[in-house]
Predict the 3D structure of the following.
Amino acid sequence: MSELLAKSRNGALRQWIHNQHALYFSKYSDRTALIGAYTVSVSHDVSEYAKGISAPVLLVTADRDEITPMAAQIKVRELLPDADMVVLHGVGHLVHYERPLETAAAIRKFLTAL
């Protein structure tokens, strides 16, 4: 899955991302557990709860995210009463792997402003 989600052309980075996913997300006891976890993960999202979240929220999003397309990200932003949104360009769902410095800078700026 990580091979499809990563948008970087950097082979070493793509391999590292794949290794991280293999290490931390491959511990399911069997195929049924894996399918169940996947089904739950794609059947629900934060939009179900967004209106009830009153705390400030930062959405770090990506313009090439195939799991959560930009239109869905904008919809979530509109549902949250107090949200900022940062869009990272040229990356997909794995922004924290592909753009860690930009992701950290956005989080730092958001937290400093609180």
User: Anything to note?
Assistant: The chain has six helices and two strands. The CA atoms of residues 36 and 66 lie 21 Å apart. The mean pLDDT is 88. The radius of gyration is 16 Å.
